[in-house]
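re: ur question from earlier - yeah i can do the single chain one, its not a big deal. heres the input i used so u can compare w yours
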Amino acid sequence: MKKFLFFGPLLFVVQLINAQSWDWGGPIDPLQAKFQIQQYRLELEIFPETQSISGRSTITFTSQEKLDTLRFQLIDQYQVSKVLMDGKEVDFFQKSDLLDIVPTDCTCNQVEIFYGGPTPIAQNPPWTGGFTWEKDAMGRHWMGLSSQGEGAKLFMPALDHPSSEPQQGVELSITVPKPYFVASNGRLIQTQNQDQKVQYTWKTDYPINNYNINFTVGVFEKAETDFRSVSGAVIPMAVWVLQDNKYKAQELLEVLRVSTQTHEKFFGPYPFPQDKIAVVETPYLGMEHQTINAYGNNFQFVPMGKVQYDWLLHHELGHEWFGNKVSVGDWADMWIHEGLTAFGDWLFYWEHGGPEAYFKKARAEARGIPHARPVLSPPNSTEKTAYHPEIYTKGAMVIHSLRGVLGDELFFPALKAFASEEQFTYLNLVTTKDFTDFIQRYTGQNLEGFFKLYLETTNLPELKVRKQGKAGYRIALEGIDFEMPVEINTSEGSQKLLIGKKGVLVTSSSLPEVDPRGWLMLKR
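and the output i got, formated as tokens:
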């Protein structure tokens, strides 16, 4: 009876915690707009048996004014035991997933936060994130972390807003029981044995989005090689898989190499040459954690031309360019992360399967787009508001249509240039307007109508083909007030014509084929 009384409420509390739904983004908190994060240094011990963590977070920040309150996000189920500034304890208040710290009267630019507790359990990772605790085939612990929809507050105190990235990166020292290994961001700079425990210290100096800060725990088999980038840099490349999947490690490494090579061809050099190119096997499907992508696709490789293709690995790797190097500061623009990366998936078909495979893929994706919500969300959107399937499918289709409008001679250099511009990469966050303005400036074309139609509305031009005269057809796109270049096949051959609501007259002894390869999203 005593056991029932003790465990019953505890079970209820755990279930209540796990049922919570966290979000992030939206308007930035005015208190948090007053300071910027320079670096997170996280020292954590992970306790697999109790599915809990304990540790210290040292946050370095800058501010142009004296701060009365330092506000961070941290979920309430972690208990903060003390906070230090300049080596002295300071007051703090923890409520509603916020941690408010009252600075001492000093010129401190650093705060140390000691905290710990049970981890939130992911209900449907990675879409509903948290910690995923599993066992491998040999009964050993296997832990993954996912937090794109919730932010870093699931595992550490943070200025948890997409516009806030630590300018000087992050250092993670993670302690686990032997024989476990921790795979994390950046490069492994130290391994320290501590009796029955081991501490792994990883470090990256690159800016990094909060949800990309990550660590995975397990007993892994590692396969590694060096990758020679198109930039000339030689970059460490590695995969970590569960030991019962070790026979798959070399094949996975080769798939990773081919995918990296393919992305570099279209998007430019790998963005994080001072760190590594890597994936780690996780107990959930996957996520784009900077330089240590989560991989849980069960080695479902498919042949594509002369190589093997893994859609999950290729997609998450593409986020190293769009999502990690090119990052948005408002989730309203999240389609830039997902749409451009999804289009990068189609380019694998183009490169290795050929044009026929590419257009077949594009047509299949286009058929499934409901056009229910605009790709671009309202300003100051939260992650849950902005995240929906069309930022992938329609986002990719917008870029595919842009390719059709511009032609490859303009399109591919423009795309690579956007991913290479200093003003849009690393420390500099981007907006949709940045992207559309740059493409128009680079190509010298007015695409305002095109971008507004496909990004901001759910409308589609209605294709009208009407017989006119004995051997003529009038072709129009109704519902738009601009013209788009459209491919048309007639009995006279193939041509590309600017078409709008007024339409154009073509001569053909047979019914013309309009946009036969499926470049555009049209109501047919």
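The longest strand covers residues 35-47. not sure if urs matches, ping me
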